[in-house]
Amino acid sequence: MNELPASQAFRLLEPGPIVMVSTHDNGKSNVMTMGFHMMIQHDPPLIGCVIGPWDHSYHALCRTGECVIAVPGLDLAETVVDVGNCSGADVDKFERFGLKTRSAEQVSAPLLEDCLANIECVVVDDRLLDPYNLFILEAKRIWVNESRTERRTLHHCGDGIFAVDNGTLDLKHRMVKWRHLP
């Protein structure tokens, strides 16, 4: 076996897809790429995400308390990386990368039309911002784009390497424990 630095644990454990986070503050929308997020619980649906003060979106999320988490497909891979390599403080990413948007129902941040799904979120707990930059968001509405033909998602492995989904394995019949719970 070969040893990796402990700082590389995320490369092995990050299960969720790369997402894009949109915000809207002071009349301007922004979008960023994010890899550090996790589901916290089902009811209410809580999502933890790490966005630091070095990100332009951090300040908008702190001020407005709302965002959209969008799940891109494999066909947006290069755009996802490019969006993550520039700052909304310097460039209008929607214009530069041709991102199509539509209005959300409950938040002012835009939905990203070309993504597989969009989750409208509000910040419900910011006590872990210092020292972890961890926002706890509650999912309020979910929009799924059924017209997307590319359904595979990207999973960040570090250094520009991504694992790509390639199907599903259905083992529901083996989940006997959960059949007996309310």
From TrEMBL:
From what superkingdom does this record's organism come? Bacteria
InterPro entries from the UniProt entry: Flavin_Rdtase-like_dom, Flavoredoxin, Split_barrel_FMN-bd
Keywords in alphabetical order, please.
Flavoprotein, Plasmid
- Which residue ranges does the record assign to the Flavin reductase like domain? 11-163
* Family matches, as SUPFAM superfamilies: FMN-binding split barrel
Work out whether the entry's keyword set contains Flavoprotein: yes
Question: Is Repressor there in the keyword field?
Answer: no
What are the names of the required cofactors?
Answer: FMN
Per its UniProt record, what SMART domains does this chain match? Flavin_Reduct
Q: Which family does it belong to?
A: Belongs to the flavoredoxin family.
What PANTHER family does the entry give?
FLAVOREDOXIN, FLAVOREDOXIN-RELATED-RELATED
Q: This protein is called what?
A: Flavin reductase family protein
